[in-house]
Amino acid sequence: MRKAVFLFLIVLFIVFLLVPHQVAEAGMWSNIKGIFSAPAKIDALEQQYMDARQQLDEQKKHLAESLLQAEQIAAKQAEQYAAKQEELIQQNEQFRKANEQLMEQNKSLIQEMELAKQKQASFTQKLFHTALICISLITAYFLSLRVWRFLVWRKQKQVSRGV
C-alpha cells in the first residue's frame, strides 16, 4: 500500500508538471516595485480626475452660457409677442370702432332707403289717384256731352213736332 500511495504521488507530480498553468508574476519584488510606483499611479489618477473635473466645469460653463442665451432669447421673444399682442389689441379696437361706425351708417342707410320706398309708394299712389281723377273727369265730360246732346236732340224733336 505504501507503494501504491507513493506511485500515486509520483503520477500526480508528473501530471502537475505536464499540465500547463499560468505563471504568477506577483512576487515580492513586484509588490515592492508596485509600492514605489503607487505615487506615480496616484498622480496619474489625480491628473485624470483633474482633467475630468475641468471638462465637467467647461461643460457646466457652456451649459450655463446656453441657458443664459436661451433665457435672453425667451425674454426677447416674450417682449416681441407682448408688443405684437398689444398691436393686435389696438387693431382689434380700431376694427371694433370701424364696425360700430359701419353699423350706424348701415342703419341710417336702411332708414333712408325705407323713406325713399315710402316716398316712391306715396308718389305712385298720388300718380294713380291723379290718373284716376283725370280719367273720371274725361269720362264725366264725355257722358255729360252725351246727355246734353240727347237732351238737345229731344228738345229739338219736341219743338219740331209741335210746330
UniProtKB/TrEMBL annotation:
Keywords annotated in UniProt: Coiled coil, Membrane, Transmembrane, Transmembrane helix
Coiled-coil residue spans: 42-119
Source species, domain of life: Bacteria
Membrane-spanning segments: 127-148
Protein name: Uncharacterized protein
Species whose genome carries this gene: Paenibacillus oryzae
